[in-house]
Each structure stands twice: as structure tokens, then as C-alpha cells.
Amino acid sequence: MTAVAFHFNVSERRDYCCRLLRKAERSGARLVVHGDAATLADLDRLLWIFDPLEFVPHWRGARLGALPARLKATPVLLLEQLDAAALAPDYPVLVNLASTVPPDVAAFSRVIEVVGQGSDDREAARLRWRWYSAQQMPIERHEARS
Predict the structure, then answer these.
(1) How far is residue 49's CA from residue 17's CA, in Å, rounded to a whole number?
(2) 64-91 burial string, b = 16+ CB within 10 Å, else e?
(3) Is the distance from CB of 83 to CB of 105 less than 8 angstroms?
(4) pLDDT tens figures, 104-126
(5) 51 pLDDT more than 90
(6) Between the CA atoms of 72, 75, 80 and 81, what dihedral angle is there, to the nearest 10 degrees?
(7) Hey, is 135 helix, strand or coil?
(8) pLDDT for the residue numbered 146
């Protein structure tokens, strides 16, 4: 069963995601970050510069099929389109930055939802929470620290 974790009241989603991805990559996790093109482009840029002494290995693309063979070991993928069945065996964790629940999300063992402080972001998160709850997926709630 897919476990879902909501991280609420995140003051700066991009910075929070960078720290989250760095922590996950350090622990050996392999993740997929899903969102729209603009959000992923911004996150991609920030992952190169957010810490001058470290780099979070990642690749950004529209879909998994565009990933070059030589980069198959990359621990973090930033993807606009998900093929959950192909991704989940090698990338069991999904960080969802989209406003809706991605299709076939149950293929992942864990989903992380990062929710900002804006009213639109919070309302979209409520809808996603209801969807996960209706699917009887276990949900954890985390409050982001200031």
C-alpha cells in the first residue's frame, strides 16, 4: 500500500524540496519529482546552486523514455509525465509538486506532497488528501519548521 506524507506550511517550496531531495539522496533513496514544466525548470536550476559545496545528482525531462542510458543511475528524476509502472521499481518514492494526484500513483511505495502556505496550494492539497483518503492510503501529516 502506498504511504503518503503531506508536508504542510512550507514557506518556500523550492528550497524545501532541495533540502528534502538532498537528504533523500544522501540516504541512498531514488526519487521522482513530478510537476509542471515551469516548476521543474525552476527546481532544476535551484538544485545546481542552492548549496555551493554540494550537488544533488538529478536529471530533468518530459518523460522517462528520454533519459539517456548513461544516466540510468541518477538518483533524482524531475519528470513532467509519469509512467508509474516503469518508474516505481527503480524509483519507489514520488515527490508530487503538481496540483492534482498523478495517474497510477499507487505504483509508488511512498508519495510526498509538499504544500506551501498559499490558499490555492492549501485548497489543492485538501482535494489530494481526500483522494488519498478515499483510496484508503495511510497518510502522515508533517508541519514544516520555520
Answers:
(1) 13
(2) beeeeeeeeeebbbbbbebebeebbeeb
(3) no
(4) 999 999 999 999 999 999 999 99
(5) no
(6) 60
(7) coil
(8) 52
d(CA 88, CA 99): 20
Question: Cα(80)–Cα(59) distance, rounded to whole angstroms?
Answer: 12
DSSP string, 53-102: T----EEEESSGGGS-GGGTT-SEEEESS--HHHHTTT--EEEE-SSSPP
Specify the pTM: 0.95
- Reading the block at residue 87, the C-alpha cell is 518508474
Q: How far apart are CA 96 and CA 20, in angstroms?
A: 12
Running DSSP on this structure, what letter comes out for residue 105?
G
